[in-house]
Design a protein that fits this description.
By secondary structure, the chain is of the alpha/beta class. The chain has two domains: 7-126, no CATH class; 129-183, no CATH class. The protein contains ten helices and five strands. A five-stranded mixed beta sheet has the order 3-2-1-5-4. Helix 7 packs across helix 9 (159-167). It starts with 6 loop residues before the first helix and ends in a 5-residue tail after the last helix.
Length: 188
Amino acid sequence: MSGQRTADDLYRAVRALSYHFKTDTVIVVGSQAVLVGWPEAPALLRMSEEIDAYPNNYRDWERDHPGEEASEEINALFGWGSQFHDTHGFYIDGVNDGTAKLPEGWIYRAVRVQVRDGDHTVFAVAPCPEDLTVSKLFRMAEKDEAYIRAWHEIRPLDVETVLYRFLSMSPDPAIEARAVRFLKTIPT
């Protein structure tokens, strides 16, 4: 299965993690973080089979469940091949705060959306567009380049801010050189 993720998919994932981990905040990283601040983003930005997410209280959960990792719990219950995946046509990829390389202070610039779960409100939190772009520069797969270009064509990114935040993280010289070369191809 594959396809375009939707805001409803995001909300379903956020509610599932909120309920299971008893939290009111779920962090969304990776390409589908776009849905938090731009639910009607172009299809190219929403093409994914998974939503990368974790509960903000995952460390507390792990402390209360010695020997277990929240990301593995997510993958078992909501990941690829799970009942959740079979039922909803997408899966939640269990990650944590070390998965996406994000610049210092990203949480203060993050985008947020309220997700209703009955009488309860849950917050989905994702990196702002420039911080999400920084995280993609560290990986720089072909699909990351296409994603950044597609985003910038429709909603121009502040390329100078992206570069500044990226360089502030002291990337490996080879990663830095490749990212800087790529950013020079993006119109400012």
